[in-house]
Amino acid sequence: MTEQSTSSLASDPAPSGSDAAAAKAAAKLEKPRGLWGDAWRDLRRRPTFLISMAIIFVLLVMAAFPQLFTSVDPNHMDLARSRQTPSEQAWFGYDTQGRDIYARAIYGARASIIVGVLATALTVLIGSVFGLIAGYFGGWLDSVLSRFSEIFLGLPFVLGAIVILTTLNPATEAPDAVKITSLVILSISLLSWPISMRIMRSAAISARSQDYVKAARALGAGSGRIILRHLLPNCLAPVLVYATIALGAFIAVEATLSFLGLGLRSPVVSWGVMIADSRQYIQTSPHLLAFPAAFLVVTVLAFVMLGDAVRDALDPKQK
């Protein structure tokens, strides 16, 4: 090696630590992200997602730890304060039996959210199982499951819920909080699962013709493995969007059934029960209805906003 080449090599500076760190950071930025990575990156930039998640977080904390928001017993009665308007002692006033409406609204979040979450989980579970089986296998099995789902889809929701709840829980029986809550969740799920099945079935039909499914089948993978390892992860996005919107809708359904006297009943504390108890005093004491209804509206709106944000983030047409 000549002296000139040796001197030129010596004159070239070695890469510094900062340059190496910058190169690694650039490599990470250029690394391709998957569907969920792109969706999360997009969601963090959406104000509707951040606002809805903040509201839902507060509601979840309220449902899990209501003592952080109030120290008043929601079932404590004082008939001398019946239907008193909001004041410093009771921010939302008192109901017909002299119970603090603010405390009952805080504690009512637990029952309403539990019904919404469990009904959504059961609905998505039933619909996803049937939808994956029908979409993957097709043929006569798809036809049978589709016709079976149309039976439930053709039932009017409120009428079907009335039939289920009045049959399984007659009004003559003493109210059992656990039993009534379970029946409400069951009735909502039985009448709602066909929608999630259709969504999952459509996604499974589209996914089963993809190359990765054909490759897995060619390598000898069984139907169960293909469904669980390949179809399910790639079909979750549309069902997840439906679940976030349905959760808020099911909370409203619980309030509707309670208002009709078919859902949750006292001593269970929920927003629907509070609205049902105030129906006869809307004109004379509107605060009995206004505050639990406001909690219900904000909750449903938060989940609808979350569903819209998730849908836009997961929709490739929006990219």
TrEMBL record:
The keyword Iron does not apply. It is found in: Cell membrane. Coiled coil: none annotated. The chain crosses the membrane at residues 49-69, 113-139, 151-168, 180-200, 231-251, 288-307. Residues 1-23 are annotated as: Disordered. Residues 109-307 form the ABC transmembrane type-1 domain. Residues 7-23 have a biased composition (Low complexity). InterPro entries: BP-dependent_transpt_permease (IPR050366), MetI-like (IPR000515), MetI-like_sf (IPR035906), OppC_N (IPR025966). Keywords: Cell membrane, Membrane, Transmembrane, Transmembrane helix, Transport. The keyword Transmembrane helix applies. CDD domains: TM_PBP2. It is a multi-pass membrane protein. It comes from the Bacteria. Belongs to the binding-protein-dependent transport system permease family. This is ABC transporter permease. It comes from Saccharopolyspora oryzae.
